Amino acid sequence: MMSCGGSGGGTRRWILFGQDGGLSGADDPAILEWAVQTGRVLLTHDVATMTRYAYDRVREGKPMAGVFEVGRHVPVGVAIEEILLLAECSLEGEWEGQVRYLPLR
After folding, report:
1. Are 82 and 43 a contacting pair, CB within 8 Å?
2. pLDDT of 20-66, one tens digit each?
3. 99-102 vs 41-44, strand pairing mode
4. Of 31, 39, 63, 67, which has the maximum CB count within 10 A?
5. What is the pTM of this model?
6. How far apart are CA 81 and CA 59, in angstroms?
7. How big is the CA angle at 29 (ends 25 and 30), to the nearest 5 degrees?
8. Quick one: 14 exposed, middle or buried, by C-beta within 10 A (0-12, 13-18, 19+)?
9. Number of other residues whose CB lies within 10 A of the CB of residue 82
């Protein structure tokens, strides 16, 4: 795995998983709002709707903590490596207002 000299916030504090905070079954806007309130970047497979709502928030001038879309075609090992690298090397607030797609390479 690649390494960096950064001092990221740690995976559990940095990344929001859909089941966190009792969000299983919540709609996309509620999940995005929860991510903002808790300062977490959202990790999702839901490119169909989640990214649309994320872009809507940015367009409306609302805060958006950041979204990483992991395509279902991305091998699990590659996804894990990218997520760990981002968690370790990202600075607080670095991904605010952005939607990114993994893998980044």
Report:
1. no
2. 567 778 899 998 998 898 888 888 888 789 999 999 999 999 999 89
3. unpaired
4. 67
5. 0.79
6. 31
7. 55
8. buried
9. 20
